[in-house]
């Protein structure tokens, strides 16, 4: 027994000795793991702390963008052409993970205080609102045979189909009002803001909504802006239009604009200057940081950036003169009658391309209805007639088929291939007279221009013989015309400009080359006529026309601020003519108005002061099978130091129309010197 006890004691003693050793091992392992954990935490904190912190912030905070006032458009004198009207608005900001049932309750509550137009409410929107009430949804689904066999989505679609077929009388006006509000709320993205009502919001509505804001999560009273036009909407033909909250982003550009940070219901420039200068006019949205709690409820709003109103455009157009010009053009067209289809006018500075005014109207000959169409000056192509003869003479001088000292030809009817063409004063050939290039412009000799064309085509004219010129003569003449801006885009800073229209120029159309020479074949825009005459007036520089003068900020009092960018004159090309050659053309244009020849065509204009130089135009045209005439005019003043160009066109007048163009020109010059520039500033 003693031996047994001794052995037991040794065994227990061995177990007791191993226990501390094992515990120590465990402590050592735990210690190593703890050190490893601390090391890893330190590593993560140092190396990735900022990243994880940003990740946490991103999940707990969001940024809401708010709209700002759009930049305005001013005229050359600082008067507002396109402004903004501020309106009180009822707005809704959609929260995070907002349930449809929550919006349904809010819409019903808000509809008690606000009445909105319901004309745009669709059957689908009305059905979605109605079925947002779970009792209504259950009742409708119960009435559909075999509904239990469908999926949840299919059940809902079946219910929508059924409700959409309900008669309109099923729903009260109050229900439709609430449904429209609900539809607008539903259209909002998470943490985006939509206008529930932004027009004709009454004081009572603002007060009632403000009093119950706590009961309507996301609803608030805000401000919205819409465009206004102090000088009338005719200027929209230049400035363009802006979409509204209702229409949203243009469907053809929606993806492009969404990628640029727009919301679907944002206002955006839709056309012309509003669209072309959208990045300038839109401004920078405000940014508010939204802090959310664990239930995705907004617990704090922090204004990070107040936003920046859009910059302003200052135009070269004089608002008062523009209004007068549009009125004069409208009055001229009102008295035209017959098959007249419109009247267009452009007034510009020939030395820098600044457009001071551009006006246009269209007329429906069947109904006599006249509508504003300012852009007709850049996109309506018109056979202008003799007004282009200055370019024809210039081309002949540059082609050296005539010279400043040797340019005399006999005006006589031109007969080729059995076709007779003549000048307006010499149809019979009894008034054959010798004229030089300047006098040919003065009397508007068609015969002279046709002979120049034949010389440029290296063709020796024989009375009654066949016209065997090569078709390359078309390119020769058009090449010179293009240098002045006729038949090519002027480069005006308004989208939608036309290049004009070219007639056929094959060998079988060679006879039309003669018509081209005196302006009775190709078609040009009124803006091209203005650029062409400006090029002559300023000594040979074809300058790009422009309506935007500068981009400017906004001062503290809301008026035009500092200049941020200025549009500089852009010379597209220079006409390679000597001073002697240019003087031939300028002398001819001066004689059109002030010459002594019995057949001068612009004598009625000699009463205009300061004196002007001009070229009138008459084209024989047809409209709907009826013979018509198109009257045009291109001019500049003063004759010695040109500061303004007036170009106009009146297509498809009655065949007896004679001086409509000159009467309108006199009225335009009178308005210009009274409104835009004092005659005392003329050298």
From TrEMBL:
InterPro entries recorded: Beta-lactam/transpept (IPR050515), Beta-lactam/transpept-like (IPR012338), PBP_dimer (IPR005311), PBP_dimer_sf (IPR036138), PCN-bd_Tpept (IPR001460)
Q: A single GO BP annotation from the record? A: regulation of cell shape
Record's subcellular location: Cell membrane
One molecular function GO term is: penicillin binding
User: Per its UniProt record, what SUPFAM superfamilies does this chain match?
Assistant: beta-lactamase/transpeptidase-like (SSF56601), Penicillin binding protein dimerisation domain (SSF56519)
Where in the numbering of this chain does the Penicillin-binding protein dimerisation domain appear? 67-302
Principal subcellular localization:
membrane
Topology in the lipid bilayer is annotated as: Single-pass membrane protein
Cellular component (GO) terms are: plasma membrane
**Keyword terms, alphabetized:** Cell membrane, Cell shape, Cell wall biogenesis/degradation, Membrane, Peptidoglycan synthesis, Transmembrane, Transmembrane helix
Tell me the protein family, please.
Belongs to the transpeptidase family.
The entry's protein name is Penicillin-binding protein
Q: Please report the organism this UniProt entry assigns to the protein.
A: Lentilactobacillus kefiri (Lactobacillus kefiri)
